[in-house]
Amino acid sequence: MPVGTQATVKGLTQRDLAEELDVRILLANTYHLFLRPGHELVRRMGGLHRFMSWPRAILTDSGGYQVFSLSDLRKITDDGVTFQSHLDGDRHVFTPESTVEVQMALGSDVMMVLDECPEYPVSHEYARESMERTVRWARRAFAHWRAKAAGDQSLFPIVQGSMFADLRRECAERLVELAADGYAIGGLSVGEPRPLSFEMVEATEPFLPRERPRYAMGVGMAEELAEYVARGVDMMDCVLPSRNARNGYLFTSQGRLIIKHTRYKEDARPIDENCGCYTCRNYSRAYLRHLYQAGEMLYAVLATRHNIRRYLDIMREIRQAILLGQFPEYLRTVRAVPVEVE
Amino acid sequence: MPVGTQATVKGLTQRDLAEELDVRILLANTYHLFLRPGHELVRRMGGLHRFMSWPRAILTDSGGYQVFSLSDLRKITDDGVTFQSHLDGDRHVFTPESTVEVQMALGSDVMMVLDECPEYPVSHEYARESMERTVRWARRAFAHWRAKAAGDQSLFPIVQGSMFADLRRECAERLVELAADGYAIGGLSVGEPRPLSFEMVEATEPFLPRERPRYAMGVGMAEELAEYVARGVDMMDCVLPSRNARNGYLFTSQGRLIIKHTRYKEDARPIDENCGCYTCRNYSRAYLRHLYQAGEMLYAVLATRHNIRRYLDIMREIRQAILLGQFPEYLRTVRAVPVEVE
């Protein structure tokens, strides 16, 4: 899922996303939209789909992760979390019920429960306490959703438990009792070494129902997507393809390409000769490097388009390999690609 | 002509420009491209059209205006102008011959001669001296072009003379001897009051051949386009539609709209209900205001698209009115539109 934090994937029009890249689902951030322009405004404008002119599915997170990573002076109680806006310092409260309300106003297709996303590392004791709160919050969110929601919006609970396999298992087992449409694995990519992220997915996955989507939140690098799928993950979201694009890192079938390097100064080839995106069909590395060096907005527009296409292509390759029964071979091929273009 | 200073119209892809907006000709800046990425690099990459993937016409200015407005420590002699790059302080020389060479390397369809663009105000004495240098430079540029150019690139001389009608006339009469494919009127929009700009065009136009395009450089505001056409101008370029778009000023058939105003916060209407651009077909003022307030790149992308479409629509309306013999009525209608949307 490409990330459209503030109701926009940076630099791309909705037509680029839907018609050209064939994006089926976008992620938008409840925390950001709650603060600006405000969920009630979005509701009055006909919901997020209409507001941002997006014809396909939208998943909204609960805002929990942003409260913990962006806002100041947050205070967690069993009732919910009090925090100050990173925009203007105003004080707000998120509860399991209120974040469902906010997402109902936004009208997203998949809503997420409020969770606590602990930093890394934390003690087993704190991780347990936090995990148990996350489970209690999930139950409250589901009770509220069952009483209030119209039924066309799904709600996913989020497995937490920091980097402790026993807590991950316990959390998953308890959340499965909610019989949700899908399950998320949260609390990853918070600074832990990558093998530990994989280990936590492995510790969680066996306890989630196979027939429901499993969503690993906030992962991963291009070369990691197949690794997560190999561990049972169906959905991922990550700002990396768009953020890395803006910072000059382009993903290709031959590894990562750093566009500012002098070697691309007069390189007439596209970013990736195996890519069919608009950028690769029309522009050279030399032109993209020029735009990057000149600080031109068109660089970000073209680079983001390419990187998102690359991520979607990887997911298409993975689906194809699975359908053909060749996923293990595919995974070996992916692991043999160097990180950087040679 | 939309302005693509550094071989890009900020935020728009070449497909947006050619296929959606039907832009026929773009302006690119010789000064900027000479400094970065360098005209020899562009030549080696197959010329500017190929480098920037632009299938239609390109006009390049001579770099003279930028030397006078952007660079430090410029020194004008009869031979040419010595200046320091605004990027790295390196010293360079532009001569009438070298700027033709640079534009030949870029491969633009319409090249401009090196001219001196005096600031405003200057004395009649300085304006005469400067105008005479501009005429001498134009003659040298034409001699060089006739000896060297392949024939598929036009070269336009530039009428100068500051705000003195006698000098404008004298300059035009002398430049017409060059029998060029078209003629530019330069030295406008340098800080003079608008009636004076119009007056200088009126003082110049009768002395330029009617059957050749007349190009007023660096003008104008949306409401001024018809005024320039009424004074005999065929071509204009201006950064205003794109720069104003980025700064929150949107041009509509009802006047200018300032998107940040609170009154647009929940306004579900498009920027201009009479506009058929992609932005107006798909997005509300409320969404654009949200993107603007959030500092989102998509705002600039969508706003630029709209403003350029508005400028092109105005030029289409003008052509239509002329063909129907209704230009005087059209001009009256335009003059009755308030500057700001009411």
User: How helical, in percent, are the residues of chain A?
Assistant: 40-55%
Looking at how many chains there are and whether they match, the oligomeric state comes to homodimer
Mean pLDDT of chain A: 96
In total, the number of strands of chain A is: 13
The SS-based structural class of chain A is alpha/beta
What coarse outline of chain A follows from CA principal-axis ratios? globular
Find the biggest chain interface: A-B, 40 and 40 residues
Q: β content of chain A, as a range? A: 5-15%
Quickly count the helices of chain A. Answer: 15
- Largest sheet report of chain A: 4 strands, parallel
Biggest sheet of chain A: strands side by side, in what order?
1-2-6-7
Rg of chain A computed from alpha carbons, rounded to a whole number of angstroms: 20 Å
Give unreliable regions of chain A as ranges. none
Separation, N- and C-terminal Cα atoms of chain A: 28 Å
What is the H/E order of chain A? Answer: HEHHHEHEEEHEHEEHEHEHEHEEHHHH
Task: Give an overview of the whole structure.
Two copies of one chain form a homodimer. Chain A is α/β, with parallel strands linked by helices and 342 residues long. Chain A is built from 15 helices and 13 strands. Chain A has helices at 14-20, 30-35, 39-44, 48-51, 64-69, 96-106, 124-148, 165-176, 194-204, 225-230, 240-246, 278-282, 285-293, 297-323, 327-336; strands at 25-28, 57-60, 72-76, 81-84, 91-94, 110-112, 154-156, 158-159, 183-185, 214-216, 235-236, 249-252, 255-258. In chain A, the strands form four sheets. A four-stranded parallel sheet of chain A has the order 1-2-6-7. In chain A, strands 8-9-10-11 form a four-stranded parallel sheet. In chain A, strand 9, helix 9 and strand 10 form a beta-alpha-beta unit.
